[in-house]
Amino acid sequence: MFGGLGRFVANELLGFPHGSNRSSYTQLYVAFFLSGLLHSSGDFMLEKRMVYRSFKFLLLQAVAITFEDFVIYIAKRLLRRGGVELKPGRIDESWVGAVVKVIGYCWMTLWFCATLPVWLDESSAIGFGSTDRGVITQFLLDRWKQRA
User: What is the mean pLDDT of the segment spanning 127-134?
Assistant: First the structure.
């Protein structure tokens, strides 16, 4: 939805070359920023005290994608040194491809469990729906609150 505006900001306004990391990450953060603003209007209509709830959650997703890209970059370099070459865009049916998929699904589940409370807690605090978070998410939320 916001891809065109992200490309405009990255390539036209800031002058980053098409396909560069600077262009890609600018587009990523512009899209999540604008999505956060859009969702914040819904938060505001629901309860004025929750206005930044969705904004925080969505920006955390952009941060996670950036971190994930960094980990993938490091992993590919280490695998290449070990003689294993992953082929981007192709189905890799080797054990390495299966391991990469499993790690990806585990990472996505863990990240979602860790960040979903950021989105849900403020609505629960004002009494908007009692949310059964499940054992894993509740455990992570309790640890998160202990650190704060």
Answer: 59
Q: Where are the alpha helices (DSSP H) in 47-147?
A: 53-81, 95-125, 135-147
Domain extent for 103: 3-147
Helix (H) or strand (E) holding 148: none
* Tally of domains in the chain: 1
Crossing angle of helices 95-125 and 53-81, in 10° steps, is: 160
Average pLDDT for 92-97: 67
- Neighbouring CB atoms inside 10 A of 32's CB total 21
Q: What is the pLDDT of residue 26?
A: 93
d(CA 122, CA 22): 34
- Quote the CA–CA distance of 62 and 121 in Å, as a whole number: 20
